[in-house]
Amino acid sequence: MKKTFMGPRIQRLREDLGLSQAELARRLGLSASYLNQIERNQRPLTVAVLVRINATLGIDVQMFSEEEEARLVADLREALGENGGEEAIPLGDIKSLATNMPRIGRALVALHRRSQAAEERLAAMATPPGAPGGFPPMRRPMPYEEVRDFFYHRHNYVAELDEAAEQMVEQEGLKPGTMEIGLERLLRDRHGVTVAWAETEATSVNRSYDSDRRVLSLSRVLSSGQRAFQLATQLAFLDQAPLIDRLTECPQLPGPDSRALARIGLANYFAGAVLLPYTRFLAAAEGLAYDIDLLGLRFGVGFETVCHRLSTLQRAEARGVPFFFVRVDRAGNISKRQSATDFHFSRVGGTCPLWNVYEAFTHPGRIVTQMAAMPDGRTYLWIARTVDHSRTGFGTPGKTFAIGLGCDLRHAGKLIYARGLDLAHPEAAIPIGAGCKVCERPSCPQRAFPPLGRTVRIDEHHSAFDPYPAR
């Protein structure tokens, strides 16, 4: 196991609690000299000490995870990469800031985002109404972005809803793969809701609830698993309303639109946790080496639903592989992105064209794998496959997405998709980046934008393969 040194974090925790070294050592059952060595990074932070911290102080051990630090590093690289200075800040300095002074790091990220918003407001005020060209209009984060950040900061795991869903499944004797009848019964017995089919097949509405008549209408084109998901979603709105209301009353969701979207996201989360109850699903995932198709068959759901659920398995006492999940279209737009760990999805400059989620479109319905290396040296295993969403009837337009599921290479050995890959030689990985504007790779022929914080070398006497050579 890799040694983990978290001395400054232990010291901050102790100071926040108003404890001396001797008092904290006494509470943890350690010698004062041993704790002193941990705080000075002369000894690593062991699992045994982490367990004592959690049991004695009630502190979430996630604050000591390397993934949490890597998330901050990614945000800082983006924020400091846009500082407008001539000198790029070395990655080592950014990592040192994230490790030793994470509060200052988070404050810098927050200041950067507020600065961006202020610049957009000033640009809007400086542009005469109706003037052609000029600056873009003022823009605050969209509600969808605020909701994404809400789930991102929770590591894509909502313990309260997850546990409530699993408890309901156990108490009601619901069986994964055959839940539709049981969920319809619960809606009828608990809330007097009648489930009916939509009157016509030609509708884009999957679920419609008439609260006055207490009738839930479902689309006729839904599969059994999709119908169960919609039933569980409606049950979440009715059964878990107080909990969902409490979760959405937070500063991260400042407006009514973002809170409404978050309510839908949380209800969908509850539905996924019902159809794929945590303990059973995690045991099945590990037993089947995370084979997504086999998991879908066992639980009666589709590829995308399995992938999304895999990205949420972060219960403290029983963690699964920490995955990151994305859904993209052919144009590169990310319509869903969830990360249980540290992989950073850039807010600017798009995603990397070398990423295998785009290759998936050239092999419809087939899983493609990729060992990918980020500029900071971390290596990942990515799998991707297309999924189709369509309606019945000739000439009816459908939609196709690529689903991507990735994890750190150190977890790849648990996945069936790593078979045949040379995990012992990560240098064979494809170099990708979080997005062109924040990618530090000095020469990439696929670069679409010059890197932020770097000056582009412009020389009329030379032509290079790299479209934006940096100085």
Automatic annotation (TrEMBL):
<feature type="domain" description="HTH cro/C1-type">
    <location>
        <begin position="10"/>
        <end position="64"/>
    </location>
</feature>
<dbReference type="InterPro" id="IPR050807">
    <property type="entry name" value="TransReg_Diox_bact_type"/>
</dbReference>
<keyword id="KW-0804">Transcription</keyword>
<dbReference type="GO" id="GO:0005829">
    <property type="term" value="C:cytosol"/>
</dbReference>
<dbReference type="Pfam" id="PF09856">
    <property type="entry name" value="ScfRs"/>
</dbReference>
<dbReference type="Pfam" id="PF06114">
    <property type="entry name" value="Peptidase_M78"/>
</dbReference>
<protein>
    <recommendedName>
        <fullName>HTH cro/C1-type domain-containing protein</fullName>
    </recommendedName>
</protein>
<dbReference type="GO" id="GO:0003700">
    <property type="term" value="F:DNA-binding transcription factor activity"/>
</dbReference>
<dbReference type="GO" id="GO:0003677">
    <property type="term" value="F:DNA binding"/>
</dbReference>
<keyword id="KW-0805">Transcription regulation</keyword>
<keyword id="KW-0238">DNA-binding</keyword>
<dbReference type="InterPro" id="IPR026281">
    <property type="entry name" value="HTH_RamB"/>
</dbReference>
<dbReference type="Pfam" id="PF01381">
    <property type="entry name" value="HTH_3"/>
</dbReference>
<comment type="similarity">
    <text>Belongs to the short-chain fatty acyl-CoA assimilation regulator (ScfR) family.</text>
</comment>
<dbReference type="InterPro" id="IPR010359">
    <property type="entry name" value="IrrE_HExxH"/>
</dbReference>
<dbReference type="InterPro" id="IPR010982">
    <property type="entry name" value="Lambda_DNA-bd_dom_sf"/>
</dbReference>
<dbReference type="InterPro" id="IPR001387">
    <property type="entry name" value="Cro/C1-type_HTH"/>
</dbReference>
<dbReference type="InterPro" id="IPR018653">
    <property type="entry name" value="ScfR_C"/>
</dbReference>
